[in-house]
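Example 9 (inverse folding). The structure is encoded as follows.
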């Protein structure tokens, strides 16, 4: 999505209000996306082996929703705190994911 975001931003109509036809269409698509994406993310977050991945996806998704909400209100410059928060979440999730692999690596090396 990040790769096509600016391309879509130039081509899709702007939702000037939630009662315009574009605003209603975007609202419906958002509800569908949240429902489907939420269920899939919840499945990942509750899975034993993929908990760091699931929690990372949920947290970055919340930051993304905050940015989309700001853009819907007309803001065009991304606040620095959102970028820093997203990077920190991705780093924490990556470190947690690799940390979960340590017992597997130790076991593969034949050490207890």
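The amino acid assigned to each position is listed next.
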């Amino acid at each position: 999505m990040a790769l096509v975001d600016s391309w879509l931003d130039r081509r899709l109509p702007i939702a000037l209000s939630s009662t315009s036809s574009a605003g209603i269409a975007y609202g419906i698509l958002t509800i569908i996306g949240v429902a489907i994406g939420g269920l899939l993310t919840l499945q990942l977050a509750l899975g034993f082996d993929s908990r760091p991945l699931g929690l990372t996806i949920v947290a970055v998704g919340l930051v993304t929703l905050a940015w989309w909400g700001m853009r819907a209100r007309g803001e065009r410059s991304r606040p620095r705190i959102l970028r820093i928060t997203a990077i920190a979440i991705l780093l924490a999730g990556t470190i947690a994911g690799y940390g979960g692999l340590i017992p597997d690596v130790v076991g593969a090396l034949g050490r207890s």
